[in-house]
Amino acid sequence: FKESNGPPDSFAAISQVDRLQSEPESIRRWREEQKERLEQLDANSRKQEAEWKEKAIKELEEWYARQDEKLQKTKVSNRVADEAFYKQPFADVIGYVAAEEAFVNDAEDIFPGTEWERVAQLCDFNPKSSKQAKDVSRMRSVLISLKQAPLVR
User: Fold this and answer.
1) Among candidates 139, 93, 99, 137, which has minimal Cα distance to 118?
2) Largest separation between any pair of C-alpha atoms in the chain
3) pLDDT tens, 6-63?
4) N or C: which end of the chain has fewer CB within 10 A?
């Protein structure tokens, strides 16, 4: 085994020395300064990248914590709603909803002039909660006006 500190080819070492000796002092100084500047820029970029990674990890952990909190709240509210649903009569029937049960109970007590009130119970009059693609504002306004002033026969 030959151990050497330079290039394995002796001619390459000589040409490298010749090149270094033949270049002017100003170019050599510029090359060294440029090398130092590049090393400093690399160090700054590595430092900045590490800071960004730390910040991203921190934000990701906060996001996961918020998501977990929302999930826990949703689970609790779903459990409460489930318990309330199963306490109702006929809850074992699949697809039986509390609003439908209330509508059926109210249907037994049909009085003239309460039709629009019963229809209004089934409609969502909050325009922001509606996620439909169609514009139903006109229908909503008609139903509200009929609820406030029913038609007289």
Assistant:
1) 99
2) 114
3) 556 666 666 666 666 667 788 889 989 999 999 999 999 999 999 999 999 999 999 9
4) N
Inter-CA distances, 124 with 36, 85, 110, 115, 119, Å? 69, 21, 22, 16, 10
Type of residue at 114: T
Domain ranges of the chain: 11-87, 102-148
**What span, in angstroms and rounded, lies between the C-alpha atoms of 97 and 81?**
11
Helix, strand or coil, per DSSP, at residue 103: helix
Query: Are the C-beta atoms of residues 125 and 144 closer than 8 Å to each other?
Result: yes
Report the alpha-carbon distance of residue 119 to residue 63 in Å, rounded: 42
Cβ pair 106, 118 in contact under 8 A: yes
In this structure, is the dihedral angle defined by the CA atoms of residues 41, 45, 48 and 54, taken in order, positive or negative? negative
